[in-house]
Design a protein that fits this description.
heterodimer, A: mainly beta, three-stranded antiparallel beta sheet, 8 strands, globular, B: alpha/beta, Peroxisomal Thiolase, Chain A, domain 1, ChsH2_Znr (chain A), ChsH2_C (chain A), NA-bd_OB-fold (chain A)
Amino acid sequence: MTVWGPRPVADRDSLEWWRRVRGHELPVQRCSGCGTLRFPARAYCPSCRGARWEWHATDGRGRVLSWIVARRRFAAEPEPPYTVVMVCLEQAPACVLYGAWRAGREPVPDEPVRVRFEDVPGEDLTLLAWHPAR
Amino acid sequence: MAGVGYTAFSKDSGVSTLTLACEAVLAALADAGLSPDDVDGVATHRVGDSAAPSVVGPALGLPPPSWYLDQFGGGSVSHAVVGQAALAVAAGIARTVVCYRAINARSEFRMGGTGRALPVGPEVQYQAPYGYVAPPQQFAMYARAHMAKYGTKSEHFGRLAVIQRANAARNPRALMRTPITLDDYLASRWIAEPFRLLDCCLETDGACALVLTSAERAAGLRHRPVLISAAAWGGGESFLSGPAPRDVTVAAWGGGESFLSGPAPRDVTVSSAAELAPRLYRAAGVGPGDIDVAQLYDCFTYSVIVQLEDYGFCAKGEGGPFVESGATALGGTIPVNTHGGFLSEGYVHGINHIAEAVSQLRGDAEERQVPGAEVALSTAQPGYVLPATSALILRAA
């Protein structure tokens, strides 16, 4: 059974990102000027400071940067123990995402992983889980 | 730095943060041999949890301030507040400034994530849904990356906790004074793997205050003054992507890692201190080899390990074995957190580290005195979590 923590509160920069995740897409922004990929969403490119950009759908592959196993309660949900992974995207290695871990074992440093979109039952919300790419 | 003042540290002060602030400020002024009527600057840092300078000033009947600072922020800004106060004095805007931090971090506002509302920030929406909401988890995440990359072991973290507890046993102010062993550490319960209970700092009720004035004026006061040789502050770790991938063992915005991606990936095993340290040492005209005693922000054991590397006391990746060698213990080559730190003395969000550094340089640290200490480093949270850190180098006059 899947239990999630406090629900995300989108802001004016992130609203469209969450909409796309709801549609099972994992996008980052791509600068129209210099091509730098960035996340989370914001108006200006950190490389060339250009303000023109478009959404870029990634292939949902990444690598494990690190992980923790929560062994006590940190919020009303989820119930411990649970594992949280920090992942950088294969196609945009500067972009870091968190997510739940879905495997019957602990992650391995730098292991290739793939995103899984998990729809939260009864809610208009999709969250990210990661599993071994195999 | 002309005076330091403390309240008692406890798990339940039974009083307001305003009362704690007033008590510590009065104690620091008495220690300096100054009157509240001498104060024309007041500064603090807080996260909406504590009494503001605009309340503490009137509560103590201080003269209208010519300068004040009410800095939003946690441990990463603790030393920046004192750095800014020093600038105000150096610029002639204020003559005598008190910096305080008053906190009911156990009985009212628990930073560790128990019974506290979610922190506010643009990154929270990407973390909280997965149950990733609290500092022990965040630092554990970076500690794990360091373990994976450099072979840092739980036993290294444990040795650090044991050493700091031994220091606290010599500190009458410390909350936790019963010595612990490595086995005690390894047997302590998991909080967020790879962190156990004894990797985590205390949550403390208490306050600490510092009095700053010009070096000329301080020379005529009660104590041998402690001079601020250098202050530096800068950016830190962030979740935002940068221009390139990151090594979760390093940090990058102004020396720190950011929540926002930048132009390049980052090494998350490096903290903001790696960027800040060269500027700090350059400003003070010293290097890590000149530091006699260091008070390094220890919200968690790992925070100290990474700073030992990033402030240049040992090679990158060698922080764990460096601690294991005994170098950071009293009597070692660079005694660290001689008061016991947040892990064992108490958690006053950085200000008690500065106060301990002052004590060491005055030579009044009694049983835990580092003989002949002339130059001290004191540091803030090393720029994980929030993109900022800060630090001071202090020198005996």
